[in-house]
Write a structure and sequence with these properties.
single chain; about 325 residues; alpha/beta; Rossmann fold; six-stranded parallel sheet; 14 helices; elongated
Length: about 325
């Protein structure tokens, strides 16, 4: 082909692209923003589950889609800036994990880009969506049992240490679901015949102070209520609980993997997988307003036998038999 003809051909192709921008767009991989309130190290289950669900929807990072991750590393004040950074990219879908702090950062940043959230908070009461069945707007997502499971954790501690009369609860009073968490815990304490001692925790520094106070009051066990605040530094929370010698039950397996005694909470990988499915459906044309908010009910009991030994505890065979995972 002569050089003059080649130039004409390239010029025609460029003109065609200008006339039909969809042709150019079709050649560009869509971008999904993934915004987490904590760190990748803490949220590996969130990422793994999302990637699996996304893959089942036909999308693989680096092949036909690009995933841009942003992590606040527990510094929640960074979330609005990170959300804005992803929106400016721009991303085609924004996925938020790690509670309402991430979801609200996304909501306040854009009302145009579709958002898929994963949270344990009530998305209606929190103002994320209009209703579960008809979310409206640009947001939808997955919720997991948070406040409801706090009551179950009290029952587990009763089973583990039946002679203990007072159970302490670490709870963030600033959390939107704090009242529901407290109410469920109080009802559960009454049901199992225990006294509840609530320790309000608003900052990381409050965690150590709460365990100091619990030890001085000779509190026999502790329950950590669901909140991203505690996920911001999982290892530190576990270290404080263990060093104080207080058997503690947590709301996610990440704490037990880090050395915590026991957790009873949502199977986050399964919940995040649903987020991946929703993100895939939206990339294929579905509207967030038409996708009802789903609530995952799959939960898991995880026990760390090494930690139990350190605390001088023998885990009842009834608990071990029901455990989904035992870490030795």
């Amino acid at each position: 082909m002569k050089r003059r003809d080649a130039i004409k051909l390239l010029g025609a192709a460029a003109a065609s692209s200008v006339a039909c921008p969809s042709i150019v767009r079709a050649q560009v991989r869509p971008v999904v923003g993934f915004l987490g309130s904590v760190s990748f190290k803490t949220f590996t289950a969130h990422v793994d589950g999302f990637v699996e669900g996304f893959k089942e929807s036909g999308y693989v990072d680096g092949r036909n889609v690009k995933i841009e991750y942003r992590w606040a590393e527990g510094q929640f004040e960074r979330l609005p800036g990170l959300a804005a950074e992803l929106v400016r990219w721009p991303v085609d879908v924004l996925v938020t994990v790690g509670g309402n702090v991430s979801a609200l950062a996304g909501k306040h940043t854009t009302d145009k880009i579709p958002i898929v959230f994963l949270t344990a908070d009530d998305p209606v009461a929190s103002g994320l969506v209009s209703s579960l069945n008809r979310p409206g707007g640009n947001m939808t997502g997955i919720t997991w049992l948070g406040a409801q499971l706090g009551a179950k954790n009290l029952e587990l501690m009763r089973e583990l240490l039946p002679a203990v009369s007072v159970i302490g609860v670490l709870l963030n009073p600033a959390r939107p679901t704090a009242e529901a968490q407290l109410r469920n815990a109080q009802d559960a304490a009454q049901t199992v015949g225990k006294t509840l001692r609530v320790f309000p925790v608003k900052t990381h520094a409050d965690v150590a102070a709460a365990f100091d106070q619990a030890r001085s009051e000779k509190i026999g066990t502790m329950v950590v209520a669901s909140d991203p605040l505690f996920l911001a530094d999982v290892h530190r929370v576990v270290e404080v609980a263990t060093s104080h010698g207080i058997p503690t039950v947590y709301f996610l397996r990440e704490f037990v993997v880090a050395g915590g005694l026991m957790s009873y909470g949502a199977d986050i990988a399964s919940a995040a997988k649903l987020c991946g499915d929703y993100a895939g459906r939206i990339l294929k044309g579905a509207k967030p307003a038409d996708l009802p908010v789903q609530q995952t009910t799959k939960v898991e009991l995880v026990i760390n036998l090494k930690t139990a030994k350190t605390l001088g505890l023998t885990i009842p065979i009834t608990l071990l038999g029901r455990a989904d995972e035992v870490i030795e």
